[in-house]
Amino acid sequence: MTVEGLDPVALRAYLVDNGVPVQGELTVELIAGGRSNLTYKVTDDASAWVVRRPPLGGLTPSAHDVGREFAVTEKLYGTGVPIAQPIALDADGTVCGAPLTVTEFVTGRVYRHKDDLDQLSDAQLAANASALVRVLADLHAVDYRAVGLESFGRPAGFLERQVRLWARQWDLVKTREADDPLTDDVAKLAAALAEAIPQTSQPSVVHGDFRIDNTICDPEQADVIRAVVDWELSTIGDPLTDIALMCVYRSPAFDLVFGHPAAWTSPRLPSADALAQEYAQLSGRDLGAWDFYLALANFKIGVIAEGITHRAQHGAKDVMNAGAAAQAAPEFIAAARKALK
């Protein structure tokens, strides 16, 4: 069966050419898509893999870089950070006209919706949240030079580049007229962030999009994370941007971005402050400039929210709830300005 965006015949030929044992024909099932890279479960008569490729339309620079995702996971595999084993990278797009990656299929649970959490008790949910924070702290403790990721990013000037990046990204994806008050708010916010940049903490591998639904959890042990996924925004940079983003994703406004009640915005989970404090204790990192990191994280999510609507307006057919996503942008921009004040 052919699923839009991935031809199983072409994929099978590619896997065989690259020494991957394939038994029988391939079956392809789309298991995630709409806002980030499209994710497929691919099976033959004996094995299962995950294939990821960029969305079908409305791409923005660097936001869907599966090659980058493959590079970082290949180096991190075996460090103790839970990762699906990388298998193959089609950087040239020979299979589907765009780059794609192949990894092992990790069995487990992905908690995307609030209702998904009903199967966990309060104690299990607390243990799961602690496990997530611990995994993030463990990731940030990896010696990126020792695993061969020294050239994966440029930690010097990382925060300055982040502020400029998201300001430029807003200009690329904004769906509003020039006289919309939010346009002026974003300009003021970008300027204020540029003035408030703190001295960065010790650099590390940064995931760039860490929350519960970007992990695969053990189906029996709530405190075990079997794999961290969605690494396309990873780099070497300031690890406090990771924990700040994880905390800001707890905002109820993120439901508008997600398209339905998101698991990570559930009031049953620990508060953002509790998550940040637990991270500080586990990692030993100083959160003295926390207001800046919260502001930057809110800014980023506000731009992402606007970008979802932008993609839909420019032909992407795989975007749910596009109109409501843009409605969340003012809330996150306002939260960013409030954090700085």
* pLDDT averaged residue by residue: 91
How many strand segments?
9
Number of helices: 10
| Coarse morphology | globular
What is the helix content? 40-55%
CATH class of the largest domain: Alpha Beta
What's the CATH H-level superfamily name of the largest domain? Answer: Aminoglycoside phosphotransferase (APH), C-terminal lobe
Give me the CATH fold name of the largest domain: Aminoglycoside 3'-phosphotransferase, Chain: A, domain 2
Measured distance between first and last alpha carbons:
55 Å
Spatially, the strands of the biggest sheet line up as: 1-2-3-5-4
Order of helices and strands: HEEEHEEHHHEEEEHHHHH
Low-confidence stretches: 58-63
CATH architecture heading of the largest domain:
Alpha-Beta Complex
Percent in strands: 5-15%
Biggest beta sheet attributes:
5 strands, antiparallel
- How many structural domains? 2
Coarse structural class: alpha+beta
Radius of gyration: 20 Å
Which features would summarize this protein structure in a list?
single chain; 341 residues; alpha+beta; Phosphorylase Kinase, domain 1; Aminoglycoside 3'-phosphotransferase, Chain: A, domain 2; 2 domains; 5-stranded antiparallel sheet; two-stranded antiparallel ribbon; globular
Task: Describe the overall structure.
- The chain has 341 residues and is an alpha+beta fold.
- It folds into 2 domains: 8-104, Phosphorylase Kinase, domain 1, CATH 3.30.200.20; 114-340, Aminoglycoside phosphotransferase (APH), C-terminal lobe (Aminoglycoside 3'-phosphotransferase, Chain: A, domain 2), CATH 3.90.1200.
- It contains 10 helices and 9 strands.
- It has helices spanning 8-17, 66-76, 122-141, 158-173, 181-195, 240-248, 254-258, 272-283, 290-313, 322-340; strands spanning 27-32, 38-43, 48-53, 86-90, 100-104, 204-206, 215-217, 225-228, 235-237.
- It has a 5-stranded antiparallel sheet with strand order 1-2-3-5-4, with helices on both faces. The protein has a two-stranded antiparallel ribbon with strand order 6-9.
- The model is unreliable at 58-63 (pLDDT under 50).
